[in-house]
Specification:
Length: 211
């Protein structure tokens, strides 16, 4: 279980999150909505170790993770994507995943479902932003994380691309994988998440339960 307990986070004098708590059981899906600057991406940054809270605690399976580096979260099966893809120089899934044949097959199946298999052997500089973003999500799902954090996965995608991506996520994401998704397309998010909560000025309008 991923647990963020009474998290407060500030960037300089600006308090971005204030006393925010989230608990996710295996297989639960939480959607975060809100205006720009409401703290949605900061929740993902904290849940993946990229930002350290000034107050509050983070637990994964009851083990304290507060203050741990991002690689420590990744080792525990916490995988995230970014609004702007952060792929390495080559996006060949075999090189990216580099672990098992099954993981590579999963990644290529997702890419195929999204209609961009022709980019499988291309390099980053040869690939437009939209398929590059889909590759990053495909890689994240293919490694079968315990928790997947998606930061605006459909941003910049056409309606058809977003629909294909949604179907690929629901088809290939492990049923025991917990999910936090930040998404402005409400139709996309409500089909993907079991519970959707809104952040306003760093606080939840209604506190999410343990889902």
């Amino acid at each position: 279980m991923l647990s963020l307990h009474r998290i407060t986070c500030s960037y300089g004098p600006v308090e971005v999150l204030s006393d925010v708590s989230v608990k996710l059981k295996p297989g639960s899906r939480l959607g975060l909505c809100g205006t720009n600057g409401s703290g949605k991406s900061t929740v993902i940054n904290i849940a993946s170790g990229f930002v350290k809270p000034i107050r509050g605690e983070i637990f994964i399976d009851q083990e304290p993770f507060t203050g741990k580096p991002p690689w420590y979260f990744a080792r525990a099966g916490i995988v995230r994507t970014f609004q702007i893809p952060r792929f390495m120089s080559s996006v060949v899934l075999g090189k990216q995943l580099g672990t098992t044949k099954l993981a590579i097959e999963r990644g290529r199946a997702i890419v195929s479902d999204c209609g961009i298999a022709h980019y499988n052997d291309a390099f980053k500089d040869e690939i437009p932003l939209v398929p590059l973003k889909i590759f990053e999500i495909a890689r994240s799902i293919a490694v079968q994380p315990n928790v997947l954090l998606l930061d605006e996965p459909s941003a910049g995608l056409s309606q058809s691309d977003a629909t294909n991506l949604f179907e690929a996520i629901t088809r290939h994401l492990n049923k025991t994988c917990s999910l936090i998704v930040v998404e402005h397309r409400q139709d996309f998010m409500r089909r993907l998440a079991d519970q959707v909560v809104e952040l306003i000025d760093g606080k939840f309008v209604s506190q999410p339960g343990i889902i």
